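Help: read this over?
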Amino acid sequence: MTQCKITVIKKTINPELAKQYCVDKVSPCPCFKGAGVFLRARKAREFL
């Protein structure tokens, strides 16, 4: 099994990219909080 660790450092919105690629108004994802850590363990092939 391969492990992947994801750490949320901070949530930001790049207004220029949002204006260029988003149709509606966007905001930071409410599902994640700063300093959150997520660990995933899967077979290496599943990460591709």
In short: The radius of gyration is 15 Å. Strands lie at 2-7, 37-42. The chain has one domain: 2-47. DSSP finds one helix and two strands in the chain.
